[in-house]
Fold:
Amino acid sequence: SPVVKGRATMPALLAVLRVLGRGGACHMGMATVAAEDDNRVQEKAKQKLDYVQGFIRSLETALKDDTAEDRAWLQAVISPSDTCGVTLTKLAIESKYQSYVSLRCATMRAVQLLIRISTLFISRGATEDHNIGIAIFLQLVGRELADEAFTEVKALAKGAEPNLGCNAILFLVELGPDAFVLSDFPDVMVAYLDLFVALPSRADDLVEVALRVHAWSGERRAELLGAAVRHIGGQMLCEVLLQVINRGLDERPLRALKVLAGCLAIGGSESLLYTNDIRVLVEILLRELPVHAKNATAFACHADCYKALVRRCEAARTHRRDEIVQVLEDLRDYESCDPKVRQHCSEALAVLASLCR
Structure:
């Protein structure tokens, strides 16, 4: 792979990983051999972790800087002719490293990044094929190794170790909906929501799973929404969704609004949001509704969320009610507004009026 200043080349990384993986002959007593073998594996695991983490940092830096040199390096490491993906995937599932959680998490993260980068180069992020990640992974490592990895990572996704479970689910979601057997998906969603409780520090990573799964639509979307309403982790998910909405970056806030509205549309979701979060959401919607008045699609996301919120949560019906009504009435009566926007305003006003009699 081309050399990038300050960044280890992939051949150098692979050479180190292969050398670290070699064993040596030992002619001492069996107990001593076993102890030395354990120490040797532990040291190798630590060294491999350092190199894989360095590689991840290089990938993330190249994505951020996005220079011509960076793009050339990235294209080289995601090429099927480069054995990077194969080496990392084998390392993630190698039996002798099963107890080394940090190493396995790092290797899954590295392969996930390679798949994401490949998707960006292939489609520039514009593809509607949610399963493109699977196709890329198969091309990167081959069918036999991919099948072996699927089996191992799916088990980790529902396993007892939360860090491995978190990285396994993130990896599988990168591949797409077909990475999950539909009959197993309810258990995966329970394991996913458990992680919000077990690993609150990973909440920003975990929320991406909900955004992706919701975009898949169909039965998997329905299972996500239903599980979020039933599970205590759903409250924590909704807290993070609220932060995504409030930050207002790229397309993520609109998807987060759709996830939240979908949860609130389900019976039993009255306690999904804390009272203060309900008020914060009302204020965000009050701020954003007029901002998106010229974009009927974005406006619909905000209006639908508001309708779902006031139907489910009493606190939303009274908080800043007069101001909300004024904004909706002004937009409804403004003839230059898109007819769809005006229709959404009428519907929201009708819902609010029916609940506040």
